[in-house]
Write a structure and sequence with these properties.
The protein has about 475 residues and is of the alpha+beta class. It is about 40% helix and about 20% strand.
Amino acid sequence: MAQKKAGPDTTSAWYDAMLPRWQLVESLLGGTDTMRDAGRRYLPSHEGESNNAYSERLNRTVLLNVTKLTLETWVGRPFREPLSDELLTDDQREWFNDVDMQGQNLDIFSRDLFREGLAKGMTHVLVDFPQVQVSDRPRTLEDDIREGARPYFTHVKPENLFYAHSEVVEGVERLTQIRIFEHITEEVGFTQVVRSRIKVITPGLVEIYEIDQKVKGKKEWVKTGEYTYDLDFIPLVTFYSHRLDFMLAESPLIDLANLNIAHWQSQSDQTSILTVTRFPMLAGSGIADEDVATIGPNRMLTTNDPQARYYYVEHSGKAIEAGRKDLEALEDRMKGYGAEFLKKRPGRETATARSLDSSESMSGLQAVTIMFQGVINQLYAVAAAWTGGEPGSVEINTQFGSDETDSRALDALRDARLNGDISRKAYVTELIRYNILDDDFDIEADAGVIEEELMVIGKAMMDLDPGAPKPPQKKTDGPEK
């Protein structure tokens, strides 16, 4: 068979290797309907199973979506608090509430980006700039401000960036070409038409390819436009949650995803066998072929042979019990999987952590969050290259642990307070840090409320027992009398 001629839609080898993993995670995150749509890809048919029987079994299977629940738990940790924009420049702070020119602020954009990178091991952002009018004179910053032209972030999901090539120049890896698959929606009359196109980006140049509509029965991509941009590098930033090599990554969710697939398949078998065993099978001994009847209401079973008999055959239940134990074992393994990524491990070190010379124990999620903060700051550095301004930076919350760690820490705080080892103010301050109390909790005002409550309680005790100690008097700012 002749090899397909290379064209704009030719994919990289790394893309072909990663795509099945991305599709697996994407299907699980889509829930039961998406898994059913995937059909035999993740739920093979049994030998000899008819299409109707398979379709019935598939439509009865329901996904226990531990993968999605775990991912949302992980993503929620660093984004409990909004990103800090104090270190951004004034211009960049103005962009904060609309970083993609589609109304998304940096918190929402970053959360979605982080979620995608954790789920699939990697994802990308193209730091783009609107195409501007070309005139005889050089453009100035004032022109951009007047026209509202500024850099913006475009999230490029990993399955849409299907080709990339890089070269190492003076020890630095630089992209030389990327290809991005896009869908463009247009209104034609009273309907919407979706067109596909490919962007081929090299340093300083963007080329657009679309399918030639004139060629019938053949998918041929033709160049339909191009434009230049004022950078000598490709403004793409890639977030790896666990990099293996150039454009190769491993999702921290992948093992859990495979366990979830095993549970999906086992659940399907369990539902199927329960359906069968709930209805005993009617059997007959010595029954002539002409006496075989369809069972149902208002029907009678008869036979001409006095020695023949009808009887029910029921399942012993051993297979049901084995299936139940298999499901429980898979569920236990899945539940424990998510917690491991949140546990602090001594000696865990990433490239970013090494650059900070940090020996502090951290969880896998904390290490990834630190790398992600570097990615967001890199985006602002690329944005500064577009404008010629100063790069800014943001800060993401990395002070979080596992529920187990939080529980032990809170128990230790409570004991220290009860033993008088720390003050109430120190105790409440730590409760705020652990998000038990809101950040705007007023310690001094609350102390005043407690003092008033003690006075009321003390007065009530004196009314019941005049000999009881007098309650503490409320402090005043004036001189003592």
